[in-house]
Write a structure and sequence with these properties.
Layout (H helix, E strand, L loop, with lengths): L3 H10 L1 E4 L3 E7 L5 E6 L6 H18 L7 E7 L8 H21 L3
Parallel strand pairs: 3-4
Antiparallel strand pairs: 1-2, 2-4
Helix pairs in contact: 2-3
Length: 109
C-alpha cells in the first residue's frame, strides 16, 4: 500500500492487534494482500524511523506465510521495534498475523 487513502481506510475501518513492538491494523479486502508500514514522528529522528521501518519490513518478510491472503494490513512500529532482538520482532509479527488469520477464519471483525 502506498496511497494516503488506502492507509486511512485501514485506520478508520480496521481492527487493531497490539504487540509490545508493533501494532497491526487490518481489514478484510476483496483483492490480494497489501501491506503498508508506518512509524510515528514521536520516534524522533528520520534515521531511527527509517531503521524501525526497515526492521519491520524484514520481520514481515520472514513471517508473511502467516498472513491472510485477502486483507489490507498496516504495521505500525513502536519504540521497542528498534531495540528488540530481531528474532523476537519476527515472533511478534507472526503472533499478530496468526491472530488475524484466527479472527478472519472465525468470521469476526
Amino acid at each position: 500500500m502506498t496511497g494516503h487513502k488506502d492507509f486511512q481506510a485501514v485506520f478508520q475501518h480496521g481492527t487493531r492487534i497490539e504487540r509490545p513492538s508493533l501494532i497491526v491494523v487490518w481489514k478484510e479486502s476483496d483483492h490480494t494482500r497489501r501491506v503498508g508500514f508506518a512509524v510515528s514522528r514521536q520516534m524522533h529522528g528520520a534515521v531511527r524511523r527509517n531503521r524501525a521501518r526497515r526492521r519491520l519490513r524484514e520481520a514481515y518478510r520472514a513471517a508473511r506465510g502467516f498472513s491472510p491472503t485477502r486483507a489490507d494490513l498496516v504495521i505500525v512500529a513502536r519504540g521497542p521495534a528498534l531495540t528488540r532482538p530481531f528474532e523476537s520482532l519476527v515472533r511478534e509479527v507472526r503472533s499478530a498475523l496468526g491472530a488475524i488469520a484466527e479472527r478472519s477464519s472465525r468470521g469476526c471483525r
